[in-house]
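=== RUN LOG ===
request id: a7f3
mode: sequence -> structure
chains: 1
length: 160
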Amino acid sequence: MSERYTEAYAATHGRFTVIPAAYVFLRRGDEVLLQLRAGTGYYDAHWAAGAAGHVERGESLLGAAVREAAEELGVGVAPGDLEFLTLEHRTGDGAAIDERIDVFFACGTWTGEPALQEDKASDLRWFPLDALPDPVVPHERIVLDAWRERALRPIMPLGF
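=== RESULT ===
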């Protein structure tokens, strides 16, 4: 395509820009580490992955997962220790901000002791996969439930 891809081009041609994010669930046996979101304006007072965030320009999904684990939990994660769980392709009301590709990883090996590093969460706890807290961010709950039930698929569409 010779024309530079922009939001205006996307609007004219019916295309959108997908926002990629990486999620890391630290696991300890049958338990998963979750944080309680606070002060973000997005699902505050909901439990969520211990580490998650948008992939930055020029960054790989694995790089984003490693960075988010360090930034949000203060732990070192090696890319080779990340276990791919699923890719959740989701959409909302059609706005560009609602077009998402969320890649979920589990990790059972890390260095350091997980602890809250940012002010975007008010609590951090381990929960058994079969006794998750309520509420969990809805699109993350779908992944956690499928993981627990051993029903994860490589790609999980949501909202289509």
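=== NOTES ===
The radius of gyration is 16 Å.
Helices lie at 7-13, 61-73, 138-148.
=== END ===
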